[in-house]
Amino acid sequence: MSMFQIFNVAGSAVSAQAQRLNVVSSNLANADTVAGPDRSAYKARHVVFTTEPMGDVGAAGVTVSNVVEDNTPGRMVHDPGHPQADAQGYVTFSNVNPIEEMVNMISASRSYQNNIEVMNTAKSLLMKTLQLGQG
């Protein structure tokens, strides 16, 4: 794998993790939403990654192939006085689990940071190689 190919592989991972962070932030923003007039609450979304060949034999990057909805049922809370309560007095909240989303956010941001560090290290190695040619 060439040194320049490292930037393609790490760059694809950075882009994929940025998309993952956007999905996580959307989930967290809607964690406490309730079902609207159509009786369907916000459903958590998850990013699906796939590997992508990146030129050289054995070099593979990552891409987001899909963003899927989590179909687990939302949280039901008995609150007959709530304006969105159904006939039995239950309010349907989104199925977002804020703790899982925070763990997902930490994982995505660490992966993002690691891939930035890979690119910085590759850049540093290329710069040192150029300096060797000057001396």
UniProtKB/TrEMBL annotation:
How does this polypeptide assemble, per the annotation?
Answer: The basal body constitutes a major portion of the flagellar organelle and consists of four rings (L,P,S, and M) mounted on a central rod. The rod consists of about 26 subunits of FlgG in the distal portion, and FlgB, FlgC and FlgF are thought to build up the proximal portion of the rod with about 6 subunits each.
Q: Which residues form the Flagellar basal-body/hook protein C-terminal domain?
A: 87-132
- List, alphabetically, the GO terms of the cellular component aspect: bacterial-type flagellum basal body, rod
Q: Which GO terms describe its biological process?
A: bacterial-type flagellum-dependent swarming motility
- The highest taxon in the source lineage is Bacteria
Could you tell me what this protein is called?
Flagellar basal-body rod protein FlgC
Q: Where is the Flagellar basal body rod protein N-terminal domain?
A: 7-34
Q: What compartments host this protein?
A: Bacterial flagellum basal body
Q: Which organism is it from?
A: Aquabacterium soli
* Family of this protein: Belongs to the flagella basal body rod proteins family.
**Where the protein is mainly located, per its record?**
other
Keywords on this record?
A: Bacterial flagellum, Cell projection, Cilium, Flagellum
Which InterPro entries does the annotation name?
Flag_bb_rod_N (IPR001444), Flagellar_basal_body_rod_CS (IPR019776), Flg_bb/hook_C_dom (IPR010930), FlgC (IPR006299)
